[in-house]
């Protein structure tokens, strides 16, 4: 998790090469860290298409940065698929016991309070985002979520946390050491 934290930090700083290197190191150390690859890929798509930018920032965007981000995202997605393929290819202990399948982890995930806290906080965040967008159309917006940079940081954190739940939704044994 040390390298995932560094990956998140460098991604928030938009130091894409370092974020990618830290993500690869995380995957090399622990297989479950493929969640960082998936999160990186989703964030790279958002950065490529300008989803985290204001309309003015979209006009001034640097296309070479966008392609660099997308290239790293696709490369890390390929790394995650290779890691997962190798898990099934060598038929490791989790695969051979049937612990890695679609939705097999729901049994242990739905009992975790952190899952419901995540959903509640995501709902509040999306509600505030929607309210701010509606207020911007009316011209009465507060500056709560106006900064595209603060929105970007929030999205990075929500996406990384969400990928943790996606990973363990498909993995049966969520032991206490893997809990958020």
Describe, in plain words, how this protein is organized in 3D:
This protein has 180 residues and is mainly α. 71% of the residues lie in helices and 0% in strands. It is built from 9 helices and no strands. Helix 1 runs antiparallel to helix 2 (16-29), helix 3 (34-48) packs antiparallel against helix 5 (63-89) and helix 3 (34-48) runs antiparallel to helix 9 (148-169). The longest helix is centred in the middle third of the chain and has 27 residues, at 63-89. The mean pLDDT is 83.
**Major β-sheet annotation:** none
Distance separating the two termini: 11 Å
Shape: globular
Helix fraction? over 70%
Proportion of residues in β-strands: under 5%
Helix count? 9
Structural category is mainly alpha
Which regions are unreliable across 5 or more consecutive residues at pLDDT < 50?
Answer: none
Average pLDDT level:
83
Query: Which sequence of SSEs, written as H and E, runs from N to C?
Result: HHHHHHHHH
C-alpha Rg (nearest Å): 18 Å
Strand tally is: 0
